[in-house]
Here is the input.
Amino acid sequence: MNGPLEGIRVLDFTWALAGPFATMQLADLGAEVVKVEYPETHEKERGFGPYHDGISTFFFSANRGKKGIASDLKTEDGKALVKRLARRADVVAENFRPGTMDRLGLGYSALREVNPRLIYAALSGFGQTGPYSAMAAVDAVAQAMGGTLSLNGEADGPPMRIGVSIGDMAGGLYLAIGILAALRARDITGEGQLLDVALMEAQIALCENAIVRHSASAEAPTRQGSRHPLVAPFGPYETSDGWIVIANVKEWELFCAIIGRDDMALDERFLTNRARLENVDSLESELASVIATRTTSEWFAIIEPANVCAIGKVNTIADLFEDPHVAGRRMLVDIPMPYGKPGTLKLPNSPVHLSGTPAIVARTMPEHGGDTSGVFADWLGISDEETAELRARGIVK
Here is the structure.
């Protein structure tokens, strides 16, 4: 099999990051994902830089493994072609503001008429209903209004955006999960359905522990830097040549002995986890002075085999390219450049490791309109000559 989703067809109207990240998960798992773009789009309009050999690395990283067609949705002929494709699709995905696809005549109600088995997956900032539904949202707005921004940053500093676009990508992952659930439900009922996922709500879901703490005790969780509200020590410590994370110490006395600080095991400020939380500033000061005396590798060799806590090196992105575990698990893979351009770009592999039907991450990003003829022939039985006529009229590229 070409992945566990072989045979599933996805008509992909998504753009920017959140939607394309969702449909890319499906492509990695074997679905045939066909990205629909406008014919007049230029290559540099497809995504942000930096550009590599004229290609947006932003677009490349979120659209690998997909096919690409270009159809003018402003024309009746273009819309008619999309409806015909939707009749053959299992999933339609879009991440426009609510109502955009309806105004084009391609919303859920219109497409359900031509394909009752269709899963219509709509991703938006705030959902298809509710007081905020018409508002625009980007990653930072999702993090802000969903609560995660308030929890990130130093205790005495301002709210801080999480360094990766988790506002977009968490929403994309929930959309992919929802699509898989809807496909399973269709196996039982024979019916498709509307999937409504909001970026704000995906962030709320990620705040589960902070929310339950507030619910249970009216606590107002806020920023603590890298500290954990329930466990100490917890977080990064600077070594003589880098950083390590120490967390979840389960044998405090043994941990203190291993790092050469038996005195800390007898210090009343640090005897229990509760005491360490109450005296976290002093605890971190004492640990910082010790950890700074050795290299990251030396501490790893001393602490990790003892199994007294969780420990990890703070890898930079450059470090990941040299990490033996990353290499052993093939988590960075070379993807060929499109348009026959020489060379490759390295991208993350799928973290979903299936023993029988593994994900396949090896195909490049879609060329703009590069698969129009093939998809029309395969999905609709349209000849190359007919596609050429549509192309001459500017309906497709």
